[in-house]
Amino acid sequence: MAKWIWYPGSLELYHGMLLHNRRTHAKTYKNGKNSDTRSIFYHPMWRVDGPRHNAILTKEAEIFESEVIEFFSNTPDSCICVDNITYPPNSKIELGVGRHRVTVSGFKADGFPAFYCTGNVFATDRSWVVCENDDKAGRHAGDSELYSDVNDNPEIFKFSYKKVEPVSVKCEKGGVLYDFGKEIFGKITISGVPKDYDELLLSLGESYEEAIDYEMANCVVNAVLENGSFTSSSCAFRYIFIPKFSHICELFVDFEYLPLQTRGAFRCNDEMINKLWRVCEYTMLLNSREGFFDGIKRDRWVWGGDAYQSYFVNYYLANNNDIVKRTTRILRGADPITKHMNTICDYTFYWFIGIWEYYFHTGDIDFISDIYPDMLDVWAFVEKRLGDDGMYVRLPDDWVFIDWSTFDSNGPMCAEQMLLCRAYECLGMCAKLCGDDKMQARCERQVKYMIAQINQKYWCEEKGAFIDDYKSGKNNVTRHANIFALLFDYTSDARKESIVKNVIYNNKITKITTPYFEFFELDAMCRLGDFKYMTDMLHSYWGGMLELGATTVWEEFDPTKSGIEHYEMYGGKYEKSLCHAWGASPIYLLGKYALGVKPTGAGYSTFEVRPNLMCFTEFEGCVPTPSSEIHVKVSKSEVCVFADIDGGTLIVGDKKYPIKKGEWLNIKL
Amino acid sequence: MAKWIWYPGSLELYHGMLLHNRRTHAKTYKNGKNSDTRSIFYHPMWRVDGPRHNAILTKEAEIFESEVIEFFSNTPDSCICVDNITYPPNSKIELGVGRHRVTVSGFKADGFPAFYCTGNVFATDRSWVVCENDDKAGRHAGDSELYSDVNDNPEIFKFSYKKVEPVSVKCEKGGVLYDFGKEIFGKITISGVPKDYDELLLSLGESYEEAIDYEMANCVVNAVLENGSFTSSSCAFRYIFIPKFSHICELFVDFEYLPLQTRGAFRCNDEMINKLWRVCEYTMLLNSREGFFDGIKRDRWVWGGDAYQSYFVNYYLANNNDIVKRTTRILRGADPITKHMNTICDYTFYWFIGIWEYYFHTGDIDFISDIYPDMLDVWAFVEKRLGDDGMYVRLPDDWVFIDWSTFDSNGPMCAEQMLLCRAYECLGMCAKLCGDDKMQARCERQVKYMIAQINQKYWCEEKGAFIDDYKSGKNNVTRHANIFALLFDYTSDARKESIVKNVIYNNKITKITTPYFEFFELDAMCRLGDFKYMTDMLHSYWGGMLELGATTVWEEFDPTKSGIEHYEMYGGKYEKSLCHAWGASPIYLLGKYALGVKPTGAGYSTFEVRPNLMCFTEFEGCVPTPSSEIHVKVSKSEVCVFADIDGGTLIVGDKKYPIKKGEWLNIKL
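Predict the joint structure of the above. Result:
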């Protein structure tokens, strides 16, 4: 089956470029007596790369039956060369039995060239490679399941669309307010507007308060007249407010989304948790697009740290490989690598870890071999910037993030060393998969060295914990590096026990306040077997948002705040995102630790199911593997598991039961 | 005066991308009983880079009078930030007295963002710089004299247009033939076509034979119906043939050209030479566009070797700085540097030499400081590929060109070492201009070392000449390396004499057959004071083309051929270019050695005029300096020189006369 093909990475670089340039912010200017509210372009703070505008892709193969190939291209500036004879687009060429070499070539100034050949052996797909004169000769062509029809256009991202109408509309505060009942994303169309208008200002709000406060709202758009109705660009909102307007017009949204097949599920006796799971699912749905976004209202950007967490949620919700691969390529950008991803060093390290975790959850060796040379280029950049001791040092253009928290961060931070070390470890495992023995050995050596260095330099006996920085003399302890030490298993059991006591359960150590880092903390706690901490957080932190009517998970939540204080962030009155992917981690936590499903071999070649009732009396659900789903049903009296793949082991208490493919395994408790 | 500004290099990369993707070749297919002739896309064999689609440029300055800036952009996805407040395009902002920081930012997917601010100090121009977060922070913004009006569009190259009608039209060979009397370039418009046609096939020819042989012509285009007339894309030709057509329709060409101000001139008593000079001038005019092209019919590409020679012709014809700068940037492309320019190693070396020569002829230090960091990146690529001995070695993806000639070229070739050495020398001089002492010293050391190595390894005492390769044992002598040794002064006077005797005047050494390398040979001969060789070539080689009716200079000419044999090249019946820039060297040779004008200090800060009557009885002419022209008039009885700049010295015989600015200096002979 033919697919559209392109220079590797072009689809991702092109759509990545577009999506990173769609952010706007609203600004209100005094304009004489009146004020004028406008939506203004807001650029990313990192270099955004576009695709190559030229591509030459080739395939050489022997065929044992003749075949006819028909060549299509998305650009007239293209041609196909069959055994040294060149033909223009839309040519039909018959290939006789024997060996052939077919090359397609094209140029597209305002996008990227893409090619489609019908045929059998020579039908276009990943098996085509970059031509030998290119500096990336031999790399596999890019393709995608999304673009397998000759009428598809890879330059238009293949979203789905659904017409959605508001659940209520009313006149209010001198304007008209529409409520969609929950967060939504898409173009807005308004019809029946009196004919004296040629433009309508729409103030959008994830909250009611934001929408009506149109001079301070984060997102306003102008709907302009087009074929008799007013249409806006695509935006995220729950509420639409048309200020200084009194006509109740027909309005609908062309809901734009990527149809994620959510094969994961979780239902339990606690309705709040069930609701939360669905809210997390919907949050992920809205933020899963060309890549995994941070939030759907404000940035709509691909951030390496946010994406990294979305990957894990994805493995328990949809196990959608394509979006992980696209996100990985969007984050990397094009050559040369001159800055960290999103300029944040930790995000570059997560990128390496994320690629290994992708392989571990999917078993997709093709992607690893495709991306491996790109990993090496990034790695060359990383290594060039390390200190003489081979450890991370902070350079002036590094944004050391880790978390919105106060660290002793002027020097080289322990948390960064942990991430760097884990990145080495993951690169080494990928090197092994790609048969790069030299790199594998180098990484393994470096991991051993770094773990020793970290334990020697950053461990503070007095505090019984890892400190942020060993050079400053402050011996400052934060949770972050210590959580990584537990998650990555980078210290001795004795030190781990010390961390649990002196950091994790030590209230004097500043608490994690962002759901971003809560992901890592809760993951670590669950690994320690402390599920109560996690389920308590589900009820208090996530439950707190639901109580306030959240239809999607917020970027941050502080139960001590009230009213519109909740919407303030980064110094903006409504700057906070109320639909933020990093809050969807309960899907991952419940799937991995309640349903208890996780791969133990790459791509679920082997896996274990170790369910935990936690605070529930019963639950059931499923976890998607690359090929199907693993079903788990647990009550106080029984554990039932079903998988239609081999390699599973059910663990209940200290007993292990092999899971037979295609048969329910029921264990009475 | 404000100009449009953009990310440095974007103008050149954008137009370079477009121009390198405009080549087509014609192909005729059997289509049942009939045949179908089509124009097919022909891609360059090197990576073609596009511009960055995002740009952030900034200026910080103190102003002592308030000013109003008005901000324009070629993209709605843009904004201006004045002292931390952001405004949309078309905003007018008043800046009070004091220090300000103004930043413009934008995105354009299908081109490159460009910005224009009216104002005084903050009027946009090269004084703006790339923003600090960018990997090229601090580089000067790109601008051009071509785009100084707010209504200009830097994405549309600013050519001039003139309606030109054919000099004759007749029915012939079953079609209609139009003749323009000389080579021309532009869109063709045909009106009055009977209404049963919706497309016309036009067979274009630089020669009559090519045009009428439409199934074998190099260039055919389809003119399509548009607003009542048929229009083609822009092409080069002298003849247009519409096959299988019998209607004499109105046809004109919208001649598209860059108005080169040709400030150089040469007139003498020999009318053939005068005609040749004008033919060379016209050849240069047609090939001087976004950059210097090789030829106007076939490739229309920027090739480093061809461009290098065009630079020298330009300094004696127009001294148009902008086109040299644009060509330099087009050739370089974007980062990362992964191949030689046009994949040809000699062309990379010429690139460095060309930059120094640019400085030497123009004194434009701004461009040197702008391009210097880009030179370093190319140099890093070059050095990475050198042998352990620091000399050039041939790598598998290097195209070692030098000339269409037979060399002993498997090993490291002497001519490449000479070019590499000269590139080092020129980089070192640029490093000096930019205050990069370390690089300067390194280059100077390397030049000394390389000259010694070349003289030690490649000199063959037996042959009294430099040999192609010292490793093969063949001791093969060609003219090329020996010519470079003379031109670059890379050997002792004794060896130079030996070269002149054993190579230059040795008929057993294969003659130079291309006008491309003839440029270097004639330059060397003139330096030796042998003008006869050069003027004989003007009469025989160039004169031979004129005798055959050439209206522009050909890519190659062999007087032993006849008829359409002249048009064959690279295996194609009409593949030869009949309007090829590298044939325009007589302009350079006559200006430099007959008029005898050359700078001796950068940018004509000092210069000499050393006229030589050669075979002429009298001539007059002028040579453009960056600011004006130097006039020279010579007869058997008198030499007259005028310059309105200081620093000139007239040399007649062994006497030197200072040239007084603004006054004719007349010396009786």
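Residues 284 and 451 of chain A are 35 Å apart (CA to CA).
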